[in-house]
Structures are given as structure tokens and as C-alpha cells.
Input
Amino acid sequence: MDLSTIAGILAGIGLIILSVFLSSVQPDVYINLPGLLIVVGGTFAATLVSFPAQELGKVWRVLGNVFRNNEYSISDDISEIANAARLRRHGDLARIEDQLSRIGNPFLRTAIQLVIDNTPTEEIVNILQWRIKRLREQERAEAHVFHVMSVYAPAFGMFGTLVGMVNMLFGISGPDMLNIGHNMAVALMTTLYGVILSNLIFKPIAIKLERRTEKRAMIMRMIVEGTIMLAGNRSPVFIRETLSSFSAHHDDELRSTGSSSGKASATQRSSMADDF
Output
């Protein structure tokens, strides 16, 4: 579970509710179901018109990833590539085949399989880069849906405002003056709902999905570099150190101090010893 996403949404809603209670004489006036229906219903209706149903189905399945703490272990991928390089140098391709089924990363599994199948390096790079491009296009399209929803929500908030203003102006000339306040509330609250949904829900989700895509693409590019070195029959130590440097800016090694630094160094020395 990604606590930052949940904490951010709850904190935003909490601050909005707190500001309402501190500044309003009658807080329940901020609860306006017709205005909320206009914004939420209009936003989802416009989204259904804008995108195919099949594409939207994939988006809602991916939405769960926003609330999950998806940690990608770069060190595990580096170890798998270094281990494959060690076995390949020893001519033990059968053991590499056996270990392929235990590799959790399908992209890495495909890359190593292509190497042990003696696929030309240029073709390997083309295949892997095509998969990276396809991943980025697919996941950016998913994030784009939420960017579009973040535009629709304030637009339908403005629509609700116009509806409320028309009803309010029409009521001024009528005998029932009590509906003027109700219509004015609808007019103002729909804009408020649209702004909240856009800037607290839809746009942050889109940004989070885009950042997740970029992180996955970075790991995949690292695997491509490791695969090139594996195909070139480079030493396991060279591969491990090069890929560790490649991913250093994503893993803050400077946080380790004192005994924890010693433990990390011991672990790294143990991994390097296994490469020979």
C-alpha cells in the first residue's frame, strides 16, 4: 500500500473540511448533491465519449497501482544479469535456461533468452527498445485519460455554475425568493467540486502514473545496457559495477552511515565474490 498517495488525498480532504468548518456559519451548505452529480456525472460521461470502452477498462485496472507501493528491485535485476554472465562464461547455458523461469521480471527474462539463443546484438537492442517504446506509449495513454478528466471536471463545474445562475436569475422575477439561495449555492458549489476533483484527484493520479512509467523505463534501459554487455561476453564484475553506477542516482547510497554502511559494503563484496 502506498501510504503517500492515501495520506495526500486524506490530508487534502481533511484540510478542505477543516477550512469549511472554521470559516462557515453553516457548513452543511457545502454539501450539494445536484452540483456534485453535474460535475462527477458530466466528467465521466465526457470521458466515455472521448475514449474507447476497451481503453477505459485498462485504465481502471491500472488505477489500483496508484495505491500500491510498487518497489522495483534494481539490485535483483543486476544480480540476475551478472549471474547469467558468469554461467555463460563457464559455458553452462543449461543452468541459465533453468534459472530463466525463476526470474520475476519478464522483460529481463526475454532479454537473457535472446542472448542465449545467440540473437544478434543489434536485433536484441531493437526488440527491447521497441518493448520500452510500447510500454511508454501504453502507460502514457493511461495517464492521459486522467489528464483529460482533470480538464473536464472544472469545465462541468462551470456548466453547473451557469445552470445555477440561470435558475437564480429566473427566480428573481418570480414569487418564490427562497429558491434563489439554493440556485446560487448550486452555481458556486459545482465550480468548487470541479476544482477539487481536478487538482486533488485526477491530475495527481496522472502525474503519479507518469512517474511510475519513467521509473520502469529507466530500469528497462538499464537492462538493455546489461544485455548488450552480456551478449558481448563481458565479465560479471564489470557488468555489476557498470549497472550499479547506472542506477546510482536512483538509490541514495549516501544515506548509509556507520555500521549500516559496513553491512552494505560486506553485501556488495559477497555479491562480487559470487561473480567469479
